[in-house]
Amino acid sequence: MPPPVRFGFYTLAAALVAAALSPAVADEKKDDGWVALFNGKDLTGWKMFPTPNKEIKKITPREVGGKAVAFDGEVKDGKSVPLWEVKDGTIVCS
After folding, report:
1. In this structure, what DSSP letter does residue 77 have?
2. Among 84, 78, 35, 34, which residue's Cα sits nearest to residue 55?
């Protein structure tokens, strides 16, 4: 490729990579019919089934700053086990 074409190709490629790697920014004012299921910070709006299985007696939300960041389950022997939690912007199931 001639130098100007090569430069344009690399510029376009770099712009596409940068656009693909940049985090999506939610526009709260725009209503395009989509509903965000996860805000990347906490489990606001999430609800747990009261008894997900016969091993778990009780489910308790774990809160930080008034926001639920995890749900823990109490098993029959009284121990608390993590069920769902937010780690580094991701929902993790235990």
Report:
1. T
2. 78
Query: At which residue do the structure tokens 């091993």 appear?
Result: 55
For position 5, what pLDDT does the model report? 44
Reported as a single tens digit per residue, the pLDDT across 23-40 is 544 445 567 888 889 999
Kind and range of the H or E run holding 6: helix 3-21
Beta partners for residue 93, in sequence order = 84
| Surface-to-core class of residue 2, CB atoms within 10 Å of its CB (0-12 exposed, 13-18 middle, 19+ buried) | exposed
Mean of pLDDT over the chain: 78
**Residue among 18, 85, 73, 8 nearest 46 (CA):** 85
The residue among 76, 73, 74 whose CA lies nearest residue 84 is: 73
